[in-house]
Design a protein that fits this description.
Layout lengths: L1 H17 L13 E11 L6 E2 L1 E8 L2 E7 L11 E4 L2 E4 L8 E2 L9 E4 L10 E3 L5 E3 L6 E5 L6 E5 L14 E9 L1
Antiparallel strand pairs: 1-2, 1-5, 1-13, 3-4, 4-8, 5-6, 7-8, 9-10, 11-12, 11-13
This protein binds 2-acetamido-2-deoxy-beta-D-glucopyranose (NAG).
The site of 2-acetamido-2-deoxy-beta-D-glucopyranose (NAG) has 10 residues, from strand 12.
Keywords: Signal
Amino acid sequence: MLASIYPAYLALASLVFATPSPRQGACTGLDHSDKFTLNAIYADGTGPVPLKFIDSGTVPHVGWALLTACPSCSNSFAYSTLAAGVWHPYASEYQKPVSWPLIAGESPSFISEYPYPTGWAGYCATDDGFLGVNDDASLWSLCTNQTSGRLDVVYSPVASHAHYVANDCASVKIELVDV
Ligand SMILES: *[C@@H]1O[C@H](CO)[C@@H](O)[C@H](O)[C@H]1NC(C)=O
């Protein structure tokens, strides 16, 4: 009796477990095959809102950039690549910005300096072309940054932040658009 049930159970188990579907918003890789630009898509499907890199400060020999939805800002970097979890906005042959460690409540930031740093390897992509962090693509928001008046991209907004009111942030997905 047991012998005849056992194979059937195994067959059922492999049916159930062989092709796990990825969790909603879960990353499937640390690379994206093409150069891309980025769009924010609101949770209700509205958008796309083109995202841009803007300079957020320079100290001698080191440049910083962050990610914004500001319509009137000019974009510092035309496109990006994602390789082994490191986000590389393209600037020039001589300026090679890379992702800086992202923390909850902040905008993605990028550092340009020489010698070129390796970059933070915490970014990822879903198989349907969305950007994630630490395996999760569902934690992005657009928040009005009160220090600048811009709508900036914020990763996992925190309750009391000096630059925005978390309740006014809007949840978005960030789409990778191949160029
Ligand atoms: C808000 O804007 C300021 C000035 O550009 C910038 O330094 C800061 O990182 C921004 N804050 C967030 C959370 O994006």
